[in-house]
Write a structure and sequence with these properties.
The chain has a single domain, classed as Rossmann fold, CATH 3.40.50.1820. With 292 residues, the chain is of the alpha/beta class.
């Protein structure tokens, strides 16, 4: 009898523990490896799942047009990396690896099995690292306006200057800076208003993550690309030439679509064109799955 009572007591304790844990973790939040709360949105159904990863200084709302479009056909997930949007900023080490852990946490929370990773700007390095962590679940990567020249390195003495310019852009934003910096070319007034909503954050970890992103590209990029076991495609603007041949040294199947007349934020300047190219890339990955 005592054994039965002990068993029931233990079961009640375990049940209460898990209820407590999951009550503190809403459906739209995952816990990253270092304990940071990661906010995400999920819409639609159907495989593969499209995971959209934003760049430095922005958040998941940068993908609103894509979520609306792709969720009609696929499960579509947009993530706020730590320090951005609605995610937590209680992080001490702002590395690309830890940002990748944010994406992994969401993939695990949703129990995703077949994933296409889409990474814009700083999100590009993040999805590369993520693919190397989720080797059995990712079927393809789409890089958006980043890694145009994988063999180019930024001199260490230049990192501080880049950091100064970019931090000024986000702490003292103007429409003129947005256009002059090549971020948008069409309807800059609307784009600036959207940008301001993203910049209304404490900016904890922003400077560190910017520096670590540059250092990742200097020190880790080619090594991580060589590890990849999935195809990589790109959608880039023409503002910076894409060195396809250099990329193919590390990922032989690499291909890039170049969109003319747009700024860095391609999906804002040309959402319809961007969506059609991304749909084509998704179908390419799915076709590759069927032939394996």
């Amino acid at each position: 009898m005592r054994t039965d009572k002990l068993f029931v007591t233990v079961c009640i304790f375990i049940l209460t523990f898990f209820i407590y844990i999951y009550a503190d973790e809403p459906d739209n939040t995952a816990i990253s490896k270092d304990g940071v709360n990661i906010s995400f949105s999920k819409q639609g159904e159907g495989e593969p799942t499209i995971i959209l990863v934003h760049g430095w200084s922005n958040n998941k709302s940068i993908w609103n047009e894509q979520v609306s479009y792709f969720s009609k056909k696929y499960e579509t997930v947009a993530i706020d990396l730590a320090g951005f949007g609605e995610s937590g900023n209680n992080r001490s080490d702002w590395t690309i690896e830890n940002f990748a852990n944010d994406v992994v946490a969401v993939a695990n929370k949703l129990d995703l099995k077949k994933i296409v990773l889409v990474g814009f700007s700083m999100g590009g390095p993040v999805v590369v690292e993520t693919a190397n962590m989720l080797t059995d679940r990712v079927i393809g990567i789409v890089l958006v306006d980043n890694m145009q020249n994988v063999e180019m390195k930024v001199p260490e003495q230049m990192i501080g200057k880049i950091d100064s310019v970019m931090m000024d852009l986000v702490t003292n934003p103007t429409q003129e800076k947005l256009v002059k910096g090549g971020f948008v070319t069409r309807d800059p007034e609307s784009a600036f208003k959207l940008a301001l909503t993203m910049l209304d954050n404490p900016k904890v970890g922003w400077e560190e993550s910017l520096r670590n992103s540059i250092r990742w590209q200097n020190n880790n990029r080619t090594e991580e690309l060589l590890k990849l076991q999935v195809p990589v495609l790109a959608i880039n603007s023409e503002r910076m030439p894409t060195n396809t041949e250099a990329f193919k040294k590390y990922v032989p199947s690499f291909k890039a679509d170049i969109v003319p007349g747009v700024g860095h934020v391609i999906m804002w300047d040309a959402p319809e064109k961007f969506n059609s190219l991304l749909e084509k890339d998704i179908q390419y990955f799915v076709s590759g799955e069927k032939t394996k």
